[in-house]
Amino acid sequence: MASTTQGTRVTRTRKARGALGTRPWAAACFLLPALALLGALVVYPIGYSVYRSLFDASGHGFVGLGNYHEVFSDDRIRTALKNNVIWVVVAPTVATALGLIFAVLTERVRWGTAFKLVVFMPMAISMLAAGIIFRLVYEQNPDRGVANAVWVGIHDTFASPAPYPGARPRPNADLAASGGGAYTTRAAARAGTPVLLPLVAVKPEDVNGAHQAAPAKAVPGKVTGTVWMDFTRGGGGTPGRIDPGEKALAGLKVEAVKGGTAIASATTAADGTFTLPASADGARLRLPAANFASAYGGVDWLGPSLVTPSIIGAYIWMWAGFAMVLIAAGLAGVPRELLEAARVDGANEWQVFRRVTVPLLAPVLAVVVVTLMINVLKIFDLVYIIAPGSSLHDANVLALQLYQSSFGTDVNQGVGSAIAVFLLLLVLPVMYVNLRRIRREREQRR
Length: 446
What we know:
Elements: H1 2-17, H2 24-52, H3 66-73, H4 75-105, H5 112-120, H6 127-137, H7 146-158, E1 168-169, E2 176-177, E3 183-184, E4 195-200, E5 223-229, E6 253-258, E7 261-267, E8 273-276, E9 284-287, H8 307-332, H9 336-344, H10 349-360, H11 362-377, H12 381-386, H13 398-407, H14 413-445
Parallel strand pairs: 4-5
Antiparallel strand pairs: 1-4, 2-3, 3-9, 5-8, 6-7, 6-9
Helix pairs in contact: 2-14, 3-14, 4-8, 4-11, 5-8, 8-11, 9-10, 11-14, 13-14
């Protein structure tokens, strides 16, 4: 009888302690600080944002859904929404794809760990620092911006730059603009009479090491002449005449034109002289625009059309390492027997990757994509730092617009709160999908 009473007491004690093995009031005491902190930092701000989104800029006038109507009618906010769609579609997909490629390709090489370390290192840099770095990378001036320095180098490899960009005829010289940046003589050239073509505004670096200009010799039956920089340091010299110390302009193309058509051409020698055949007699001489075209300045990476893809590139540079590390961890758990069996059955490496590796990594890839999608919806600092003021409107995203509407020049915290609520609604479906996936995995493990 005593043992039965004692057993009943133990059963009641266990019931009182609950499933966690302790008393409910004790668990509540331990959870209360966390719940209070969660309520203060999460629940209250969400509730207040919903409440504040129903009032005007002053916070006193009730406007109902008016702020939400402005969210979908304002051009700036619609641009931000369009850019957010681009971000959500492109950034997680590309970052995950690169992470998958890096994880698979570095699995069998000795220096794979070192490569993964280098790729993951940008994650140690803050968004602020990364934004400053890429603001310099995308600098328009090729002498400062790495991206344009590389791009200009590639361009100039296949297309020779103009020898004397920006140069022009000396005033009162027998050269006049003939359209498109070219210059043509007013008078026709005559065989046996050398022609002088003086130019000014030549950059000093373009004539560094150039030879002294020399007067062209008269050659019977041929048109000769000299093209030179008609400028003497110190202000000396006579305009239109080759003076000592004046530099020759070598490598400059000269054309003989009759009836608007070039019938002959020549290139100036190291001393600035050129010789045209007898057919040039009576023709006018033209210096083509290709001689004076401005140097190729590269791509306007931060212009209105490319600013969003450029910033996405900076984001991928940072987060591809994150994707690679998670995918590499998942790849380490893939049964090697399945891969070897596929190879034994005659599958090549591409087929093994597409038909075996990727399906087995699908849960990990889903985690990476969902995580990056949630992160992308909150992107703010990269856009704010990299995009210049002239392109900030074109690069706008919802998180940045939230900040500008709430704390910018036209402060309207009602609209800012509406954007915050809208962002929350965009994140909730992604979080729901992620939670369902986690719950499904737990059930499968049971």
